[in-house]
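Hi P.,

Sorry for the delay on this. The queue was packed all week, but I finally got your sequence through. Input first:
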Amino acid sequence: MTEIEYGGEGDEARDGTRWIVLVVRVPAEPSRHRVAVWRELRKIGALSLGQGVWAVPDVPLFADGIGRVLELTERAGGEAVSLAATGRGTQDGRRLRAMFTAARSADWTEFIADCGKFEAELAKARGGAAVGNSRIAKFTLAELEEEEQSLERLRRWHRDLTARDVFGAPESAEAGERLKVCVAACEDYAERVFTALHQVPEQRVPEEGRREPGEEPGR
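Then the structure:
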């Protein structure tokens, strides 16, 4: 059994991180209220400590999200209590930090996977769709707009994850590099689209108007 440090005097006995612990109770029906509260808690990156108990670091970033959770709970006829807390001992605080960071690592892993999907979509657009034995590239403004919207979603997601990754999960560095790769790939695709759209089509001579070399007109 792991020995946990309790008591102790002075800040050195604690991890030093302050937390907001939310105890939320929402009526089971209608279920949409419980889902709305759960989604908001997940959106802000709250750490689930058990049924109806959540925690976030006590930093200004989470204030608005906590306010929305309390408002949604009250609107649903439920009850919510918010508590300011610290780990009683150093090990408790470190454990909370590790749990919170592990949750952020999972978020970053999902983000990195979506970056891979975005790169694959761009490669598909550059290579085109199979038509017979060849492939026709999709160099259109409509396709470019769709890819740029996907990239903007990745940028917003990266910004949100960076904001709530309070303690710095190790995957964040790789995620930043993957986002740069996505941006560069999208810029390359945009250049290819504009080049294709500005290309002057070749003038083709109708079959009946063609002449063999050296043949005089009218013969």
